[in-house]
Structure formats: C-alpha cells, structure tokens
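Technical note accompanying the year-one report. For the benefit of new consortium partners, we illustrate the data format agreed upon in the data management plan: each record pairs a sequence with a structure-token string. No post-processing was applied to the example shown here.
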Amino acid sequence: MTTPDSDSVLAEQLLRFTRRVHRIQKRHIEQCGLGVTPAQSRLLRTLTCYNSPPRMADLAERLEVVPRAVTTLVDGLEASGKVRRVPDPTNRRVIRIELTDDGRKALGELRGARRSAAEEILAPLTDAQRQVLGGLLDTLVEGGLEAAPKRGHGC
C-alpha cells in the first residue's frame, strides 16, 4: 500500500484553498451588485497601478493573460461605463484604457468586498497564524527569490 507524498498532499490543499478563495471572493463581489466579475475586478485594480492610462498590451502583460482576454474584459467594463478607450495623444493608432468616475466608485465598493472576503477566509486564524501565513505566502509568491514583500493592491 502506498501513501501519497507530502508534496502532492500540499498541492491538493493549495488547489482546494485557491478554489475556496475564488468562490468566496466571487460571492462577495456579486453581493456588491455591480455586475463585475472577479477578472474584471482584477483589471480595474490593475488600472490603478499606472500613472497614465495603459495600453491593452500593457494590461495583458501585467495580468499575465493573452491580449484577447483583456479585450473581452475591457468590452464588458466599457459597456457598463467603468472604463473607456481613449486614443494615445502621441500615436492615434494606439488605444489606452482609463477608469471612469463610475469605475473609481466601483473600485471602492470592490475593495470593501475583497476586505470582507478576506475576513471570512482568515477568520479561523489567530493574529500570529496570519502573520506566519503572510510570510509563507510572500515566499511562495516570490518563488523563493530574495525580494521585498509586495503586499497591497498588487502593483
């Protein structure tokens, strides 16, 4: 009789945990009533990382998705008035994506939803356990590289 090795058990736990996180965040985002998907929420947050409106290719690179995926996300957000496409002032062939006032307002509500989702997810942990988890997650996110923690909104 064989027993699963500890890495495969950890891998399964991580997969189950990420599915749980996604499910809880999705529920909290839906409760906002903004009609925004988790992926659209991530794109809105990513827009705040730039000093000026980014190109779709810039967003695709930062989100680590194919450009077509960004087009679909922007289409939905533009239809709901949360972003708009604007021509680049120096090259009219280039289109940039900027937040609208409605998009900024939605971001505030989405931050609250993410915060409440995090509270629900982390509720079973003590403050000390949360601190340990934060350190472990920093190590995993960075892949063991010596880098400064990048906590916050992900920029």
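Partners are asked to follow this layout when depositing records. The mean pLDDT is 90.
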